[in-house]
Amino acid sequence: MADKTFEIRVRGIVQGVGFRPFIYRVANELSLAGEVLNDTEGVLIRINAKAFEIPGIEMKIRGESPALSKINSVETKEIENRIFTTFEVVDSEITNQKSAFIPPDTAICEDCRKELFDKNDHRYKFPFINCTNCGPRFSIIRDVPYDRKQTSMDKFPMCSKCRSEYDDPSDRRFHTEPTSCPICGPRYFLYDKNKKLLSEQTGEIISICSEYLKNGKIVAIKGEGGYHLAANARNSDTMRELRERKQRPFKPFALMVKDLGVAEEFLEISEIERKLLLGRERPIVILKEKKKKVSDLVAPGLTHLGIMLPYTPLQHLIFEKIYDMVLIMTSGNISDEPIISDEEELFEKLSGVADYFITSDREIIQQSDDSVLFVNDKSPYMIRRAKGFVPIPFFSSHSGSNIFAAGSDIKNSFALSKEDLIFLSQYIGDLESPLTEQKYIKTIDHFKNLFEIEPTVFVSDLHPGYFSTKITDRLWNNSGTRIKVQHHHAHIAAVLEENNTDDKVIGISFDGTGFGEDGNIWGGEFLIANKREYSRAAHFSYFPLPGGEAAIKDVWRIGLSLLITAFGKDTLPADPKRKIIAELIEKGINSPLCCSVGRLFDGVSSILGFSDSISTESEAAQLLEEAALRSDTSQVFPMEITGGTKTDPLIINSSPLVKKLVESKERGVSVDDLALVFHNSMADLAIKVLKLLREKTNINKVALSGGVFHNRLLLSMVIKNLETEKFETLLPEELPFNDGAIAFGQIASAKARLKN
Ligand code: ZN
Ligand code: FE
Q1: Which domains can be identified in the chain, with CATH numbers?
Q2: How far is the CA of 128 from the centre of ligand 1 (A)?
Q3: 526-583, pLDDT tens digit by residue?
Q4: What are phi and psi of 375, to 5 degrees?
Q5: How far is the CA of 165 from the centre of ligand 2 (A)?
Q6: Phi and psi dihedrals of 396, rounded to 5?
């Protein structure tokens, strides 16, 4: 039987991950003649073979594919006969359609790490070492198809040695686009804060930098997705200085140590947390402190610390010099702006923060922060999805139009979707500074171009004041379909999409704030929902949020409002500051109504004396959780559930709980105990309401969403209660509970609506 000619099309993350050398190896093993190439749709293989051989070849491709690849589909068809005599890797063919996926940035692999410290290796101590299995990708790619001239490595022509490796299909660096070596590669530079060049010798830079770090200096170091601020985490003076310079009194700093051994000296690490720390994404993992090793100012008032292991060659080289030190490695930025990734902005924004700067001449095209995860009862949960995960798409079970979803203004990520793919952007930040807004718009353009998605459907939140809503209007420009999705419906739709269900569920959204259909601020929601539609089945009772958004920082105002709601205005306190706010509330001036559970946590934290005003959104709630962890009471204070006749929602009145907390505190009950009683009561209430709603609707599936569930204690309690009461529980997997999931939920809801 004569050989025929077949074309095998492989789609998925198959470029920049060593796929062509893999195919080359397979072809050699099977003695196949033909060719393999990258094009804008993925990888294309043409071979001479017999028809019966094809299933075996496809199976081998799927079964043995390289570590960083992710195959979406393998399709084979017979084409016009061509005779090949050898198997070749050929150059990229450009077609019009761009749908090739782009791999995420990846920690350097074990092979590269060994070469980095091998005196006899050509790349000994070369701080930009990488190979087909590791290194930067998303952060350096300008456009597809992914090859060197479309990356920020284009200005470093390969030397003859690198070129020969690049051209050799049996080499680990075959077609590794970011490859280079000490002869032809990029370099690092050390500057002081006046932008005076101090050194351009890597060895010297690392020695000087290690000394600076030991001596309490703050060094900005270029990483993969942007600049980190590094400093000695044991030095309280340095921590205090950094907090002052960054104007960041509370938000915890992430740590980095040389390896697991150092981490285990002071942190509790479970098997699954160990795996996450060593994963190629190298995320920050939040771990419980078991021994004091770092300054209290790393995470003031908290017993959990965020830590990651080195992932760039430079980080490995620095830790070789300071092997037992704990460094803080926090995003180089101002407050909640995105991580800084270019030099101009670096000196402009951080010259008052860092003492020294390590820059390089390899440009970062796309900034991304480190991803953040935590583990609760053996399940990992995402807090911030960025480096290492982005831009791997999610596969939806339904195909659909080209959709843009703007996300939320808080903890923003946006999303673009086409066919069955959803591309969720990296964490952008809070859209409240011009710089963040500018990066948001720039990143949208980059994603549209990279994944060639020209949206015809434009989705945003209902919030009329959101920057993201305005941008969506502008992008839509009266052409195409414009859809708005209520904030908490988006939260629940995201969980439903990730769990691949079209069913109706009871969705809980315990959240910060989100604009409601009635114009009030929602966030204590029980919705009967599928992805397409929802009804509000129960919610917490409204209380005024005096000063509106401003009250989010001055949590004592929320506490005061809860007190007045519970006890009446006759409890007006004497102090003048409080009297003014009480009057605002009474007269309804600038006091929007709110039923957010996030704000309820803030208010209770203030009433119990843990927080007065805060510098970052979850601060008061985190301190309340920490207090609860110090107690072990199982006491519950009840709340009042009313309403629920016909189509009216149930109303959960939190005032009885607030009253009992205050009375108990006055009687001398410890506030730590009361913090735990509050958590117990919230978890108890949730299950009570769910049981009422199950009786009414016969729905047994529950979806949990909303940023409040980043509270591990509450999350554990609610999940346990759901298990006891035999509910089926849907949880986010790779999406955060918080507003980072909103864009994804907006896409899910829009797709479901357009289907009908
Ligand atoms: Zn490598
Ligand atoms: Fe939210």
Answers
A1: 4-89 (3.30.70.100), 188-374 (3.90.870.40), 393-497+742-755 (3.30.420.360), 505-730 (3.30.420.40)
A2: 10
A3: 999 999 999 999 999 999 999 887 778 899 999 999 999 999 877 666 788 888 888 8
A4: -115, 135
A5: 49
A6: -95, 155
